[in-house]
Amino acid sequence: MYDSILFPTDGRPGTERAMVRALDLARTFDATIHALSVADTESAPDTLPEEEQQTLQEQLTERGEATTLDVQNRADELDIEVVRHVREGRPYRAIVEYVEEQGIDQVVMGVRGRADTDVSYLGSTTQRVLTHTDAPVLTVPLDGPETLPETGHSMYDRVVIPTDGSDAAERAAASALTIAERYGADVRVVYVVDTNTYGFEDAPRSIVGLLREGGENAVETVAAEAREANLQASTAILRGVPEDAILQYAEGAGADLLAMGTRGQTGGDERLLGSTTARLVRRSSVPVLTLR
């Protein structure tokens, strides 16, 4: 259950799309929206005179107040309870600390996409929040318009859940099923045999069989949980480069939401957010729910 939803915002063009997603979740779950703006005072050069630093701090704080007020005005129109905060410091650190202090159930953030494979383009704030918070993070592409559906209309009809059976994938699946159940969405669970990593064409048939068997067990576990919640669920075993295969499948399925863990079976530190998860978050045309 989502009782508190954090929407960090800097008021830049395009953040309207992420705000709409946050508001829709809050309305659907009868949750409180926490609008947080962080005045990045630490980015100012140390050589800046103290008086100018003070002026910059005041300007950033005023901008943050105006940005969070916009969220409150939209929330008030929908009778959604809202809490506004403006903090100073490094944005990702302030966001992560706020999540821990307030016991936030869901974070909704905007992300600007890019078609190539430059992982660094995901952005330091988004990547660090994804790798440092234990709360689910919904990243919303900021390209294109977004409108809030009328009451009674669902924003999520089809949810695609890639899984490899890891603990992070299972946690992400559980969070996604919570959303799917509330919205009445169909669930598609997929596993990708990574042909790039395993050299699929040259691999012994016994290895291929083990990979498929492990994938089938992983997807059926999630699908069974979905069916227990009275959701329509189907499974698929895919082959290829994971993010390519997942995105192609999601497009063909008409997915409204993707959900996956930030760490797979191989584990890894924050640098490895980036392999499959970071590229998928950056390239996806639909929101992606991640959980570490």
What does this structure look like?
The chain is built from nine helices and ten strands. Strands 3-2-1-4-5-10-9-6-7-8 form a ten-stranded mixed beta sheet, with helices on both faces. The chain has two domains: 1-153, HUPs (Rossmann fold); 155-292, 3-Layer(aba) Sandwich (Rossmann fold). The chain has 292 residues and is α/β, with parallel strands linked by helices.
Compile the SSE list and pairings:
Elements lengths: L3 E5 L6 H15 L2 E8 L10 H28 L4 E7 L2 H12 L3 E6 L12 H9 L4 E5 L16 E5 L4 H17 L2 E9 H4 L6 H24 L4 E8 L1 H12 L3 E5 L14 H8 L4 E4 L1
Parallel strand pairs: 1-2, 1-4, 2-3, 4-5, 6-7, 6-9, 7-8, 9-10
Antiparallel strand pairs: 5-10
Helix pairs in contact: 3-4, 8-9
Biggest sheet, in brief? 10 strands, mixed
- Shape summary: globular
Strand order of the largest sheet: 3-2-1-4-5-10-9-6-7-8
What is the C-level CATH assignment of the largest domain?
A: Alpha Beta
- How far from one another are the termini? 18 Å
Quick recap of the structure?
The protein is an alpha/beta fold and 292 residues long. 44% of the residues lie in helices and 21% in strands.
List keywords for this structure.
Rossmann fold; 44% helix; 292 residues; single chain; alpha/beta; 10-stranded mixed sheet; 2 domains
